Amino acid sequence: MPRSQATDGTDEAKPDANLASGEALSRPISPPIESRWTFFTNHTHVLVLLHQEPTLVLREVATRVGITERAVQRIVQELEGAGYLKKQRVGRRNNYTITLQRRLRHPVESHCSIEALLELICKEAPAN
After folding, report:
1. Whether residue 51 has pLDDT greater than 70
2. Chain-wide mean pLDDT for the chain?
3. Topology of domain 27-122, per CATH?
4. Rounded to whole angstroms, how far apart are CA atoms 48 and 50?
5. What's the predicted TM-score (pTM) here?
6. Is there a contact between 104 and 110 (Cβ–Cβ < 8 Å)?
7. What's the CA angle centered on 104, arms 99 and 96, to 5 degrees?
8. The pairing of beta strand 11-13 with beta strand 85-90
């Protein structure tokens, strides 16, 4: 809830106008502010999940990444359009295939392939 300064100088909780309409309830709950940023984008998160589980439904991808299903649909469309992902309908589900030979888009990482990125991220963590 947003906070405002009360007349006595203390912080006072101010109700969110969106709560009354139910709009705020349909959005994913944000993590604490200190953990909001990550080293990888949502595009990377979606790509990794679909690489690990090619028949995963987008609703489950959204839940695991912490974004809306619509955002995942947009990301999948962008990845397909750029040639990083192929979608094939199998019965009632989609099967996703990652184009491993594609290079990363940004000039800083363009020397790296999707395959190398996925190998790095998906590798088992060493035991301590």
Report:
1. yes
2. 83
3. Arc Repressor Mutant, subunit A (1.10.10)
4. 6
5. 0.69
6. yes
7. 25
8. unpaired
